[in-house]
Design goal:
Length: about 325
């Protein structure tokens, strides 16, 4: 009896039988997964997702590069001697505010509307806005090399300044990594990332809840402005913590809001439009579906291959598929 434990009726081990069934079913499951609307949509934008990975890699390289060390003389230290203290909002909290929270809101709208096109394009646009902003911000930081307001304590932790006798430039005695960050004041990364993600969220909400429906609901406007207020408060903390000059924060906010606006309007209509509640691709697919159904009613016996041939002929003739 003990020798039959774990054996199938044909005498083969049950584990082997299960593995064989899994191997037979896996190609079908994989095919079904690739044919789902979400998978098809992601695959159709695979180049966009690859570019996102490239942008992330570029931003990583920019963070490793040594920034330009701008000349800092003794007379310039007056505005750079503020206290060196911890961030009120650490860098790891910025992606939570500007990326993860907006994505959770996108997912919530998806469960309400079940629109995979809206979810995909919202996440894609948000990621593009954040990473493009990150690359622009870090590239400018490295090129400008502006000292932070707390540069003195970064450069001279013992508060004993040392200057080059010939050039008059600082000869820092502090920790190398701390000094490196001290030359990255302009523009503010916290602020630009916050306005990129939360600015995109404001655009998204304004379209979804139809703020500009001419009914005068001020509550909707307050809801749309809330993410921008949070982003602005993040920028204020950077000045209060003496990590940035106010001009750094202003420039960072400007970069973030401009990039987020461009990325949103590339994928979604302007919120003031009647169709401003859904991405462009949604209406394109709706038009394509209507054209397909109309062709099917005119030629009910046309097969799938014939239908695809008809679409190809339409595209070759230069006619938009949404025009039928």
């Amino acid at each position: 009896m003990a020798g039959n434990v774990g054996m199938s009726k044909k005498g083969r081990p049950k584990r082997l039988v299960l593995e064989q069934k899994r191997d037979r079913l896996w190609p079908y499951l994989e095919k079904m997964a690739l044919q789902s609307p979400g998978s098809k949509l992601a695959l159709s934008h695979k180049h966009d997702w690859l570019i996102l990975l490239l942008l992330a890699a570029i931003d990583g390289v920019l963070n490793m590069i040594e920034p330009f060390h701008r000349y800092v003389g003794k007379d310039m230290m007056t505005n750079l001697m503020f206290p060196f203290k911890e961030d009120t909002i650490p860098m790891w909290a910025v992606p939570i505010l500007s990326i993860f929270i907006p994505i959770l809101i996108f997912v919530a709208f998806y469960f309400v509307r079940r629109d995979i096109y809206d979810l995909h394009h919202a996440i894609l646009g948000l990621m593009f806005a954040s990473l493009i902003t990150g690359v622009i911000t870090d590239a400018i930081k490295d090129a400008v090399g502006r000292p932070r307001p707390n540069f003195f304590e970064r450069c001279f932790p013992d508060k004993k300044p040392v200057f080059d006798k010939d050039t008059g430039d600082v000869l820092c005695t502090g920790i190398k990594a701390v000094i490196k960050e001290g030359y990255k004041s302009f523009p503010s990364g916290h602020t630009s990332w916050s306005f990129a993600g939360l600015g995109f969220l404001s655009w998204y909400l304004s379209g979804k809840i139809r703020v500009f429906d001419r009914r005068g609901h001020i509550g909707k406007l307050c809801l749309v402005l809330l993410p921008l207020l949070i982003a602005a408060l993040v920028g204020v903390t950077r000045v209060d913590d003496y990590w940035h000059h106010w001009t750094d924060v202003f420039a960072g906010g400007l970069i973030g809001i401009i990039v987020s606006s461009i990325c949103y309007l590339l994928l979604f209509p302007f919120p003031t439009y009647p169709d401003g509640w859904a991405p462009y691709v949604f209406f394109h697919m709706m038009g394509e579906s209507e054209c397909t159904s109309q062709r099917g009613s005119r030629t009910p016996h046309v097969g799938r291959l014939d239908e695809m041939s008809l679409r190809m002929e339409t595209w070759k003739d230069g006619q938009d598929i949404s025009d039928c």
